[in-house]
Amino acid sequence: MGRYSVRGKVPYMYRFLAVFLALFIFVGDIPSFMGSAADTGDDFQISVKWNGEEDPDVYQYDSDTSESRIIRAKIMYENKQAKTDYAPNEIIITFPGLKGAMRNGSDPLYAIAADKAGAEPKNYDWSYTYSAATNTYTFTNNYSITAGSAMQGSFEIIWKVDSRSSKHDYETQLKAKLRSAYNDQSESNSLTYRQTRVRDQFHVTEDAHRITTNNIPVMLPSGETYEDYIWVDYSVNAGTTLHARGLQSSEYDVWILDGAVVGSGLSDTGETDVIDGKTYRRYRKNSSGDMIVGYPRRDADGNEIEYENGEITNYVEYYGTYYEESERQLLGKAQATVKIEEYKEQVDGEEYNTSKSSSGISNSYVSGAIRSTDMSGSGHIYSSSIGFTLRY
Questions:
Q1: What whole-number distance in Å separates Cα of residue 331 and Cα of residue 285?
Q2: 176 and 220 together in one domain
Q3: Do residues 133 and 249 both lie within one domain?
Q4: SS3 assignment, position 308
Q5: C or N terminus of the chain, fewer CB within 10 Å?
Q6: Shortest CA distance to 140 belongs to which of 79, 205, 91?
Q7: What is the pTM of this model?
């Protein structure tokens, strides 16, 4: 990659052309040699390879985990004996980037063995610009080449590609092209870049908890009260086994016994189905977390409803659409069964989430039905309005 120099004077016309080209390079445009001289017959050779890889022509990036890889393309050029002088910016090499491999459409450049166009001082034999519109790197020579001298060297373009940010089942071909101010042209061999990404996997859980009748965020039918319902706080969650490709969207379909009332965060799809001889209604939930459901205690005639086996079962299906796919897929199922008798009597106050944080020897707190007192030298006493006292 030695530098090259010109001996003798460069014709005035070519000096003017070099300045004109340098201005274009500085603002990031690809040089255009309008009205340039005819082909000199110079024998420029250019070739490319994946540097440091077992297969220099094909880079196969298959990933089943969250990772980043360094990808190195080496561009090699040669002219054993130049037939004319070349001023700076009179030789151009173009090479595509890898922006098409990324979901965000940005080329994942990590490093490049060339100066940015217009930068001073020059540290490399080439300067470059990048066009996002065409996904093209354009390199121009920084130093002169003298007729009769040899020109030979190479440089690297290095990308860092994150597996989870890049596309599944992507492939592209990359070639380098060289041309001069005198219309000499050469094209390299073709490189292949491919990548695939393994889908994440999911497991769904659903739990049920008692809640209080205080401040339940549910709109009730006209004329009814919270005491007309048996309340259950369900919690749904989708755990992830992380691989290399996640979801662009996801949602829960929740099947709830028809006739129940539901809290915010659940939207009625209008669909019903019969499961185990009972009619269920499909609701949609856009995220993990709690969902409040109230089951009626009495029928329209005022008679207490006897639920089969004294139980109610709720069903959840988790759906999602993976990146680089268009169809929604079922990713997991779960269900929760509650025993009605355990939920009929609601606690007046916050029965759960009674965590305590205090210091000193005589701090106390009250949280709904639970009360606690720190006893100097004798631990703690917990008491409750629902009938227990615990000392430790």
A1: 15
A2: no
A3: no
A4: helix
A5: C
A6: 91
A7: 0.76
